Amino acid sequence: MKKLLLMPALLLATLRPGMAQSFVKVPGPVPSTVCYADTEDKHTRLELPAAYLQQQRTGQRRSTAANIEVTYTGFTPQAQAAFQHAVDIWESLLVSPVTIHVQATWRPLGTGVLGSAGATAYYTDPSGGIRSGSSYPVALAEKIAGRDLNSPAQSDIDASFSSTFNWYYGLDGAVPAGKYDLVSVVLHELGHGLGCIASTGYSGGQGSYSTPASIYATYMENLAGQALTNNPQFANGSTALGTEYRSGNVYFNSNLAKAVNGGVRPRLYAPATYSAGSSISHLNEATYPAGNINSLMTPNIGAAEAMHNPGPLMLAMFNEMGWFNTAIRHTKLPDSETSQNFTVSATLVSDGTITPGSVKLNYSIDNGPLTTLVMTNTAGATYQAVIPAPGLNHTVSYTIQASDNETARIYTAPAATQPILNTTPRFSFVVGPDVTAPVIKHRPLTYLFASQLPYQFQTQATDNVAVNTVTVEYAVNGVARPALTLSYQAATNNFVGSLGTGGGPIVAGDVLTYRIVARDGAATVNQAQTPTYTVNIVDFKAAQNTYANNFNTTSAVDFVGEGFSIAQPTGFTNAAIHSDHQYYDDSTLVYQMLVPIRIAAQPQILSFDEIAIVEPGETGSVFGTEAFYDYVVVEGSKDNGATWTPVADGYDARLRTSWLAAWNSGTSGQNSTGVGTPAMFTAHTFNLGSKFASGDVVRLRFRLFGDPGAHGWGWAIDNLNVLQVTGTASELKAAGGLSVYPNPSAGQFRVRASFSKPTAGVELLVRNSLGQIVHRQAVTAAAGQLDLPVDLSKLAGGLYQVSLGQPGDAVTTKVLVQK
Asked: InterPro entries from the xrefs (predicted)?
């Protein structure tokens, strides 16, 4: 069985008027699968695909065949050979001009887990797409767009396979009883990464799907032929949709798939009990059982089962989603202040052959009747048609269409929407006076290190006709400097320019204010500008042995970063460091302390009060592994930020019961809606000396990592202290040790200790019978008696261990809690 992990990060396309498409990464679900073994021996074997056999006979690859490059980590030669065989099969079946990059890891996985794989990102509306408003796994999106959309250095599919399973590594499909065919499992999981993913979810009777819906999901229908995405009858997150997901009757409505399936819609796996990771994202097991030519993409992979063929049904579904495609590449016409003839040009890239006479331009003026022109093939794959001058003060809208001889499908630009939406997207442009101002997209600076000067400003600016100039108007300490003119870079679609000290010095402590102004080239110039942003120019300060900050009265800038600020949210009685509430999926937030700490000869303790409501990992998961999910971590660097070392393992909401309860208190989709309150602040203590040596000068930073999956309230830090320990357990013992009263108690008791001198860097810990920490707080005491209240009344009765001291040097006693 396969377990679906819904993770964020959709890449959404935005169209710059007058330019080709560009893509911006935003949070969203990125599905992945985990494949579990079925213990039943199947004793079945599928024939290899004809295309692969033809390639083997001739020894030649098709010129258009896909190229899949795999980066192998940890694989044995046998395992790599099996993996590569599955890759070779997919290459023989797919067409793509863009290399598909796979990151494959061979390592121990969980009990019964064969492997996992998934696309690393999704894009919406790639140029030449099949359906607008839907999302495509990156490998498919790149094939359709005809170019890399993510960095060529990034993988398109990530895959992990168990290094400890009972594998059959042979390539012949003769799998013995009790063994699992690695070729079949790899072929199956790569199929998910290539697009066989519905990205659906089910919780509390409610069914859901990612938004925008995956291209696969837009073809889902119920028995009655009703669409299950973008349909008000089955709203996203509704019980009506949940009922359909468990109906046993969910289908993939594809003309191409029906043509190879006896004229009927392929049936998807939708059992009465929703199975996360299996439901909807597979073909139905009972309809296509072991031994059926279409059985590879069903949910069960059994022992002694060889499936070295995706099957004609899955291939037809892939072709419907765009793996067979005619891409119409066109740059939208910009607005014009002049009435003239407008030439519409498009380049067609087809996996088949263009049907003669099928390339047409359909246009209308002011939403009037459509006029259709057959476009002329002017050179190679370029087609053109001319829209006669419409006159001034008119809006012209248009589409381009074509079909291929192989599928007889009609492709359009812009791409058609899902039929249920009943809308027809069109390109449009206005002829007449330009009164539209440019649009500026810019992520403002909040701080800038003096050492980063000269700094390269960059911003995006678009216009319905054309952007003429983009400038940065700025001042230092309130005194205006000459404006900085930015230049357009076509490769990045950004306007860029270097801000230096040519206009005068800029040093740490200065305050820079700036705004970005964009002007178009209209007869009457239109202008847009951003708000005025304030930027602190900062640098690292002199190293200190100690540091204290309650964030209420500090005037100097001691912290800088993204996604954090010193703030006082509603419900809090004083200021503290707060991350964004809520933080985003697939993000890393960093807040850096500008005061380095010099490690002293004696132990040095970092302590603060905190709330960390971040996504908890799987039960038993360990920091640094994939199942640990989101976390917060304190890190230090002794080489000026070149490398960072965790001061202690990262942690999540599981560290404190109140944090975990807050995380679980409410959800929206997969995300927590729980909110932090001042009562949740608890002390946390770290020994800097455990990671760094005496004399090291250490920079500290606080980092929140959010994986693609779910997010929540975030992190808050208050009362931060770096102290040199002046009290030890041996001094504590000499002064009378540690006592607890009353003992036994009902859960509320006091801890008493005596100190002969002021003490800092000491921590009180309470552990249960399993050794788990159930209570902790930092202790700072003047000379004399320490008397601390402890409340365990919400915990179960039993014997608890109480310790007071520092890591590796503490005094302990026990307390009995009776309920």
From this structure: MetalloPept_cat_dom_sf (IPR024079), Secre_tail (IPR026444)
Residue 633 near residue 612 (C-beta atoms within 8 A): no
Query: What percentage of residues in the chain have a pLDDT greater than 90?
Result: 68
Band of pLDDT at residue 25, cut at 50, 70 and 90: very low
Instruction: Return the C-alpha torsion angle 254, 259, 265, 270, nearest 10.
Output: -80
Element (H, E) at 32: strand 30-45
* C-alpha pair distances (Å), 375 with each of 20, 155, 384: 21, 39, 5
The pair of three-digit structure tokens given for residue 55, joined into one six-digit string? 């390639």
Q: What is the CATH number of domain 547-724?
A: 2.60.120.260
Could you tell me how far CA 794 lies from the centroid of its own chain? 37
Judged against a pLDDT cut of 70, whether residue 613 lies above it is answered with yes
Q: Kindly state the tokens that stand for 41.
A: 């021996």
- Please tell me the pTM assigned to this model: 0.74
C-beta of residue 660 within 8 angstroms of C-beta of residue 616: yes
With a cut of 90, say whether residue 13 has pLDDT above it: no
> Is 252 in contact with 266 (CB distance < 8 Å)?
yes
Strand partners, 459: 495
Average pLDDT across the chain, whole number:
89
Q: Compute the distance between CA of residue 635 and CA of residue 614 in angstroms, rounded to an integer.
A: 18
Peptide bond into 56 cis (omega under 30): no
* Residues forming beta bridges with residue 458, ordered by sequence position: 496
* The two domains 326-431 and 728-817 share their CATH topology (first three levels equal): yes
Judged against a pLDDT cut of 70, whether residue 174 lies above it is answered with yes
Q: Which of 225-229, 537-541, 598-602 is predicted least confidently?
A: 598-602
Residue 725 binned pLDDT confidence (cut-offs 50, 70, 90):
low
Residues 6+ apart with CB under 8 A from 492: 458
Tell me, which fold does domain 326-431 have in CATH? Immunoglobulin-like (2.60.40)
pLDDT digits (tens, 9 = 90+) for 652-673: 999 999 999 999 999 886 789 9
Please state the rounded mean pLDDT for residues 154-164: 91
Tokens of 34: 């985990």
Burial (CB count within 10 angstroms: exposed 0-12, middle 13-18, buried 19+), residue 338:
exposed
Query: Is 747's pLDDT higher than 80?
Result: yes
**Cα R_g (the chain), whole angstroms:** 31
User: What pLDDT band is residue 780 in, cutting at 50, 70 and 90?
Assistant: low
Task: Work out the number of other CB atoms within 10 angstroms of the CB of residue 612.
Answer: 29
At 222, the amino acid letter reads N
Q: What percent of the chain has pLDDT over 70?
A: 91
User: Beta partners for 651?
Assistant: 632
Q: How far apart are CA 705 and CA 418, in angstroms?
A: 36
pLDDT over 80 (residue 430): yes
Pull the structure tokens for residue 383: 């087609």
How many angstroms separate the CA atoms of 695 and 599, rounded?
Answer: 5
* Inter-helix orientation angle 77-93/182-194, to 10°: 50
- Residue extents of the structural domains in the chain: 24-321, 326-431, 439-538, 547-724, 728-817
**E-only strand ranges, 321-405:** 326-329, 342-350, 360-365, 371-374, 376-379, 382-387, 394-403
CA atoms within 13 A on the CB side of 446: 10
Architecture, CATH, for domain 439-538: Sandwich (2.60)
pLDDT value of residue 8: 28
Question: 766 near 790, Cβ under 8 Å?
Answer: yes
Do 1 and 277 touch, CB atoms closer than 8 A?
Answer: yes
Looking at the DSSP bridge assignments, the partners of residue 329 are 347
Question: What is the pLDDT, as a whole number, of residue 812?
Answer: 85
- Give the separation between CA 141 and CA 21, rounded to whole angstroms: 13
- Distance CA(334)–CA(645), nearest Å, equals 52
Instruction: Flag whether pLDDT at 447 surpasses 50.
Output: yes
Contacts of residue 479, defined as CB under 8 A and 6 or more positions apart, other chains included, come to none
CB 15 within 8 A of CB 35: no
Instruction: Look at domain 728-817 and name its CATH class.
Output: mainly beta
